[in-house]
Design brief:
Layout: E1 12-15, E2 18-23, E3 30-31, E4 35-37, E5 43-49, E6 56-70, E7 79-85, E8 94-99, E9 112-117, H1 123-133, E10 135-144, E11 147-160, H2 164-184
Antiparallel strand pairs: 1-11, 2-3, 2-5, 4-11, 5-10, 6-9, 6-11, 7-8, 7-10
């Protein structure tokens, strides 16, 4: 349940994103995946953290992949929406994907993947949300039927700049290497 790749300082690429567990709206505490969405609760909030959020300066894309499957009943009208939550900056949430047909025939081994992405025009707001404290939420709304949410992955393609501490360490390491080379010669 995580998408994690390191980005060299000062370059663009996949930003580290750590899945930190679920927060179920309307219920206290964290719950693990897979999670069954039925009458109540009717949505699931998934918590993520960007470890190097302080150095994040731009985002090229945010994509979301959620695996869901049926509970095996005869209900074939499962509907769900994926939402990027902007509660940290007080703006309306961003709709990023949806599924509006039945999940019959799916199970824990044969899941269906619902894909979504933050629209290009909304990436600035998503960036502000993440820059606040590194934490953001993806919400899965149950709009019909009942189903299991098995896993969810968020991938952020962005650009990070080196932090001052990193630059200082690189400078010191460079000076030490130059001194060692000079001494050897």
């Amino acid at each position: 349940c995580l998408s994690f790749s390191l980005v060299p300082a000062g370059s663009a690429g996949i930003i580290p994103v750590v899945y930190e567990g679920n927060i179920i709206e309307g219920l206290p505490g964290d719950q693990g995946l897979p999670f069954f969405l039925s009458g109540s609760p009717n949505n699931l909030r998934l918590r993520y953290f960007v470890p190097n959020y302080a150095s994040l300066v731009s985002i090229n894309s945010i994509s979301v992949s959620v695996d869901v499957y049926d509970d095996g009943d005869a209900n074939n009208n499962e509907e769900l929406d994926l939402v990027f939550v902007l509660n940290g900056i007080g703006l309306p949430n961003l709709a990023i994907g949806s599924h509006n047909s039945g999940l019959n025939g799916t199970d824990s081994l044969n899941r269906q993947t619902v894909l979504g992405a933050v629209n290009a025009g909304d990436l600035g707001d998503a960036l502000l949300e993440i820059q606040g404290d590194g934490v953001f939420f993806i919400r899965v709304n149950r709009n019909g039927g009942d189903f299991f949410v098995h896993s969810a992955t968020v991938t952020i393609d962005g650009e990070a700049v080196p932090e001052p501490g990193t630059l200082g360490l690189c400078g010191v390491a460079g000076l030490l290497a130059a001194a060692a080379m000079r001494r050897r010669n």
